[in-house]
Design goal:
alpha/beta; 10 strands; globular; Rossmann fold
Length: about 230
């Protein structure tokens, strides 16, 4: 489905990704693990065209996305929930959702489906999104991205700073996406949460993919996690 092959990416003259390669499959949760600064967030930004790849390619079902402008990437069916949510804080919940729906021409049926996933948002539709709690903002950011009916969903630290009940809800939604054949690429610092839901894990070190491992192997033997992330 989504494939990165030999991707190099830079911030100015500083190279961050070096030959990044991975593939995300339909109905799979693919997690990116590595120490801070390893290149996990940059990988997501490069997929979205927010950081321009200077080498290699990003393809979705065989279509090369590498040279597309960033605003075209969501139209191809890639949803993105960045770290920090990046909502339109002065707009209401309903207006934020509408922006997601407009991206690929989706309508009321899709919106209702998202509100079924996050029922708390039904009571917040007229509320300005900047006044929501952190957990509610994360739900809205995910719902907005899912309004694209994405083939691929990119999640960057979706549980950061959230209370356990919100973490459980977001985890349940991510797992439910398997049934829709959506590929999920997840960046998450909470290794215990990653291993409990992942299908495969890509370990990234210095902007390079060092190893891709089935999560079942890691659950039985945490030695690889300790090697690449430094924690058990």
């Amino acid at each position: 489905m989504l494939t990165l092959s030999g991707v190099d990416a830079f911030y100015g003259n500083v190279q961050v990704l070096r030959g990044m390669a991975l593939d995300a499959r339909p109905g799979e949760i693919l997690c990116l693990l590595g120490r801070n600064g390893a290149g996990k967030t940059t990988t997501l930004k490069t997929i979205m065209g927010l950081v321009r790849a200077r080498g290699g390619s990003v393809t979705l079902d065989g279509e090369d996305l590498t040279t597309l402008p960033a605003h075209e990437i969501p139209k191809r069916g890639i949803g993105y929930v960045p770290q920090g949510r990046r909502l339109f804080a002065e707009m209401t919940v309903a207006e934020n959702l509408e922006i997601g729906l407009m991206t690929r021409g989706r309508g009321r049926v899709v919106r209702e489906r998202m509100l079924d996933l996050f029922p708390l948002l039904r009571d917040r539709m007229k509320q300005v999104s900047g006044t929501l709690s952190g957990g509610e903002q994360q739900m809205l950011a995910m719902a907005r991205a899912l309004c694209l009916e994405p083939r691929v969903l990119l999640l960057d630290e979706p549980t950061e700073g959230l209370q356990p009940s919100m973490i459980a809800l977001i985890r349940d939604v991510v797992v439910e996406l398997r049934g829709s054949d959506t590929a999920v690429i997840l960046v998450e610092q909470r290794v215990d949460a990653v291993l409990s839901i992942a299908d495969r894990v890509v370990f990234i070190e210095n902007g390079t993919p060092r190893e891709t491992v089935d999560a079942t192997i890691l659950r039985d033997d945490p030695a690889l996690v300790q090697r690449y992330v430094g924690i058990g």
